[in-house]
């Protein structure tokens, strides 16, 4: 074809999955309906991320949500914590 220097074929789906696996971070989330256990939910999210394959030293809390639940008695909140870290390759 005139004027075309190089044709790049699309990457195969198997190769794309391998690339995605290398770039992916292991992550997990913990959700509790409680008024006072946000620290426990954070620790649980970290442990779940490690169990999912994250390197413990790289795990960070990437999202935290604390929503009051008007339909529960007292001062009750839904605490949702998401933790992620680098995927262990060893």
Word description of this protein:
The chain has 2 helices and 3 strands. A 3-stranded antiparallel beta sheet has the order 1-3-2. The protein has 90 residues and is of the alpha+beta class. 28% of the residues lie in helices and 32% in strands.
Terminal CA distance reads 46 Å
The secondary-structure class comes to alpha+beta
Helix/strand order: HEHEE
Query: Share of helix among residues?
Result: 25-40%
Kindly estimate the percentage of residues that lie in beta strands according to DSSP.
25-35%
Which residue ranges are poorly predicted, with pLDDT under 50 across at least 5 consecutive positions?
A: none
Number of helices: 2
Neighbour order of strands in the largest sheet: 1-3-2
Give the mean pLDDT.
Answer: 75
Q: Mind telling me the C-alpha Rg?
A: 21 Å
Shape descriptor: elongated
Write down how many β-strands occur, each being a DSSP E stretch of 2 or more residues.
3
Q: Largest sheet, if any?
A: 3 strands, antiparallel
What does this entry show, briefly?
This protein has 90 residues and is α+β, with helices and mostly antiparallel strands. The protein is 28% helix and 32% strand. The mean pLDDT is 75.
Keywords:
single chain, 90 residues, alpha+beta, 3-stranded antiparallel sheet, 2 helices, 3 strands, 32% strand
SSE map:
Elements: H1 13-23, E1 25-34, H2 38-51, E2 60-68, E3 77-86
Antiparallel strand pairs: 1-3, 2-3
